[in-house]
Amino acid sequence: MTETPLVEADRLSRNFPMRSGLFGRSRDVFAVREVSLTVARGEAVGVVGESGCGKSTLGRMVLGLEAPSAGTIRFEGRDLSGVSGAERRALSRRMQMVFQDPFGSLDPRRSVGAQIADGLRVHHIVPKAGIETEVARLIDVVGLQKSAAKRRPHEFSGGQRQRIAVARALATRPDFIVADEPVSALDVSIQAQVVNLLADLRRDLGLAMLFIAHDLHVVRHLSTRAVVMYLGRIVEEGPSDKVFGAPAHPYTRALMAATPSITARKVDEGHVLAGEMPSPADPPSGCAFRTRCPIASPECAAAVPDLSPFEPGWNVRCIKAGPAHPTGAQP
Fold it and tell me: How far is Cα 199 from Cα 232, in angstroms, rounded to an integer?
């Protein structure tokens, strides 16, 4: 019998009404369109794509921070749309988020220890007498000194503040964490440290994680399964070693070409990503990527391709899908 996924998103969409001019007609602009994905217990799923592709909106919907326009979100098989009150608060303990901007997510007026302790108090994780000890333990888990508890966020570097944000998320002992671009605001030298911290915590604590990023190198390192989004839709999904080792969708190949650190071989010039992503308010007909795709043909404009099996467990939204040369191999 197949185990029920810890988190399941089914055909999620998020649209925003937009009006053209003062008296123009209102129409829907989609940030996310019919996205389905699952996250198993202990699994790390990476979501990657350019800015504006809808990945952060997807993460907020999965956590219930933003309501979907359509579709359902289930946690342990329970539809979250029917959850409220005490049950919603209980679920918030088990589902936490690490934001892109650690300084913006921390209160500059309060000590780090007090902010980590909030979750412990609200959800009664430990007895009141044990809160200080638990805060000290969490600070140690993320690699900071015990004295950090009495200091305020502005006294720390960006990497240290992100470690504090991770400690605060861990305080409620969650089963699932959404990490939304958690290293994009950090120096390159610090990014690897935070990514390694998240990888170690996921392994040691058995956490399920939805890791959102635009850097394929980071996602490949941390995730076991990858989801590639373009203009609100999933265009490729599957095991990370396959998606990044021999991508089947031309968009994934183009993202790899723009990330030199992910491949040791020279990338064909035909795979270099050209132009800008179209506006969600005026998407191309058919395949949304066709206006930037080096292998597009007139038939690509006819209809939006389905997300279809390429190999078992590996799906691609492209009528011309085919594997690239494996990473590290010569064409």
Answer: 27
How far apart CA 224 and CA 294 sit, in angstroms, is: 29
Position 168 scores a pLDDT of: 95
Domains in the chain and their CATH numbers? 7-316 (3.40.50.300)
Q: Which H or E run contains 237? A: strand 233-239
Do residues 283 and 233 lie in contact, with contact meaning Cβ atoms separated by under 8 Å?
no
This prediction has a pTM of: 0.89
Structure tokens at 149: 């508890």
pLDDT reported for residue 10:
97
Which H or E element spans position 56? helix 55-63
Number of Cβ within 10 Å of residue 272's Cβ equals: 12
**CA–CA separation, 312 vs 316, rounded Å?**
11
Asked whether 56 and 97 are in contact (CB, 8 A), the reply is no
Q: Which two tokens stand for residue 19?
A: 């009006």
Query: Do 181 and 56 form a contact (C-beta atoms < 8 A)?
Result: yes
pLDDT in tens, 226-236: 999 999 999 99
φ/ψ (deg, to 5) at 43: -90, 145
| d(C-alpha 177, C-alpha 271), whole Å | 33
Q: Which residues on adjacent β-strands are paired with residue 141?
A: none
Residue 188: exposure state from Cβ atoms within 10 A (0-12, 13-18, ≥19): exposed
pLDDT in tens, 51-106: 889 999 999 999 988 999 999 999 999 998 878 778 888 888 999 999 887 778 88
Residues in the chain where the model's pLDDT stays below 50: 1, 262-269, 327-331
Nearest Cα to Cα of residue 251 among 313, 310, 321, 330: 321
Exposure of 45 in the CB half-sphere (CA atoms within 13 A): 27
The residue length of the chain stands at 331
Cross-strand partners of 78: 75
- What is the full DSSP assignment across 240-274? HHHHHHS--SHHHHHHHHT-GGG-SSPPPGGGS--
End-to-end CA distance of the chain: 42
